[in-house]
Amino acid sequence: MDKDYTASIDSATIDLIEKAKKEEIETIFSRAEEIKPCPIGVEESCCKICAMGPCRLPRSKRESRKERTGVCGATIDTIVARNFARKVAAGVAAHSDHAREVAETFLKTARGETQGFSIKDELKLIAVALDFGINVDGKDTKEIAIELGERVLEEFGKQKGELTYIKKAPVSRQEIWKRLGVIPRGIDREVVEIMHRTHMGVDQDYKHILLQTTRCALADGWGGSMISTELQDIMFNTPVPVMGSINLGVLKEDEVNIVVHGHEPLLPELLVLATKDPELKSLAEKVGAKGINLAGMCCSANEVLMRHGIPCAGNFLQQELAIITGAVELMTVDIQCEMQGLKNVAECFHTKLITTSDRAKIEGAIHIEFHPDKGLDTAKKILRLAIENYPNRRHNVYIPSQIQETVVGFSHETINYLLGGLFRASYRPLNDNIINGRIRGIAGVVGCNNVRTTHDLGHITLTKELIKHDVLVLTTGCAAMACGKAGLLVPEAAKKYAGPGLSEVCEAVGIPPVLHMGACVDNSRILIAATAMVKEGGLGNDISDLPAAGAAPEWMSEKALAIGHYFVTSGIFTVFGTTWPTLGSDKVTEHLFHEFEEMYKGMWAYEPDPIKAAHRMIAHIDKKRKALGIDKTKERVLFDMDMRRSLG
Ligand code: SF4
Ligand code: MSK
């Protein structure tokens, strides 16, 4: 059987897809061949929110009626906008429920009610407490942390007023939001309101539905996700650049392999701690293993990679393949992006699949619930189970050799420090290099893998094209892992792939041309970095003035839509690949792609070709450079004596 080179650009992935085929194990790749996307659903021309439907209204449908409406009269524009709004709400709910879990654990930690957690970054604790208006004078760490935990939890259920972090945005941005009436109140309230307004027979004006969609998305970017990032940094440390390694070759033939998969870094942090337990180490030796090898998958991988240098086994489409190596003793999954197909794959091997969140079970998997008060005990119990499972490995182990070094962990604080130095930490050098044209602009490349496109191809093609044209790329999520596997997250990549200006800056500072900023929730770090650039001066008064753009070339999850929507409505031109969920309605698409520019000075775009997508981003960056009057590259002028004298 020939290898399928269209499935992925990563040879480790291709090898394991082949292994699965030979061993007749079903994976997402084989299922996608059999199940094709529904042509009506793909353009979102279907409503099933009441029992008089589903009402299917594809463009091809020719009826005597002039307008495409459902049985109740709902127009195609209302239907498409409602579907879009619900997807964004689901994405916001996912990020924000993650944030709630983190906030609750943070408060319990502050009160001394957790096992294995502590407040690690006290400087950040004070900074965040001040953001929340807490008076820190004369208070100790515990008092400040308790007050902060209580204040943060109020953000979820707030009924009136504004989310606290809205004030972190540039003033001109806040004014746009105020004018449009889209400043979020409480996080939960905005999600509930979308569910209400998109119920049968409520909000039936697509523009009005999309205003609430914006308010809800902003409650994620400047609410839930930002809260997660900040509290995780306080509890687990703000990331600084660390070396790591990535791809399925990080699994070890002669060690106990445990893969942590999902999104909340709570249990993974304690698993890292538990691997150092001497009793567990000697148990591993006793069963014949040379050690305990913890590896990450998806965004859990990003979290432990950037804080501890724990190796990353891969991104979304590689989760089943990790088990298909036959070398994984145990995989833990908590929330989000964990395929139910993992259970069938695990059953073909000795792998134990463990669900750990009280919100997510998988039928047939072992459930060991994580609670922070007994967190370390749970982590040790899980490790013990993995070690005891090592002798049960069957003979068909194959670990690909592909492994790539990476440098990760570029938080906003780190960029500030790396560029400006410890005593004058600032974005000045970055802004200056944008103004003088060495760096053309900034791009956020984020998001998932999608089995409907070649794995990692969109991320890598788009990112390489951007850096070739001197655009500095900030990346998170599965896009970041794709960049890591392709060798773009090391300083040497600058010389190899970046344009001359970007390469010069990267070499001078010692950074890669693509900066790994973390997991999905850490897209909030990109908002903070963009805001810091505005506040530094010289690049306009608002995020929308920056020569910047965003992209998610291989998106698939509802969270990606939530992220994209808060990027756009924060003023960033954002291009999605793969597919676009409003194609059923010209009016809704026109509103998001064009009228949004008038409203938010940022707009959506859809372009499945990654080279074309990169050039749309570059064109937008150039448009912004022109508006700022920095579109002419400044030649370096050698001053002769007369010219020097004329300077006075
Ligand atoms: Fe059809 Fe209207 Fe019911 Fe939607 S709400 S399923 S369009 S009848
Ligand atoms: S894990 S949301 S596939 S980036 Fe955050 Fe990757 Fe997308 Fe999940």
The overall number of domains is: 4
What top-tier CATH class of the largest domain fits best?
A: Alpha Beta
List the uncertain runs: none
Q: What portion of residues belong to β-strands?
A: 5-15%
Oligomer: single chain
- Total E-strand runs: 16
Within the CATH hierarchy, at the fold level, what is the topology of the largest domain? Answer: Rossmann fold
User: What's the architecture of the largest domain in CATH terms?
Assistant: 3-Layer(aba) Sandwich
**Straight-line distance between termini:** 77 Å
Going across the biggest sheet, name each strand in turn: 6-5-4-7-8-9
Which molecules other than protein and nucleic acid are bound?
iron/sulfur cluster, Broken Fe4S4 cluster
Largest sheet: 6 strands, parallel
Keywords:
single chain; 648 residues; alpha/beta; Substrate Binding Domain Of Dnak, Chain:A, Domain 2; Rossmann fold; six-stranded parallel β-sheet; 11% strand; globular; binds iron/sulfur cluster; binds Broken Fe4S4 cluster
